[in-house]
């Protein structure tokens, strides 16, 4: 029973770290990119895809 709990906790932590890294990478990538919306700079500074 304890072993199942341990593995579950480990998987949960792994999932959290993966999603956290993905979110951070996305935010950092958006900041580094030039905020263009179809060649026109966006007022909000966010990149929009069609």
From TrEMBL:
What is the official name of this protein in its record? Lipoprotein
């Amino acid at each position: 029973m304890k072993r199942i709990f341990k593995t579950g906790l480990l998987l949960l932590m792994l999932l959290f770290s993966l999603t956290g890294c993905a979110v951070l990478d996305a935010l950092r990538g958006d900041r580094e990119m030039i905020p263009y919306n179809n060649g026109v700079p966006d007022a909000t500074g966010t990149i929009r895809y069609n």
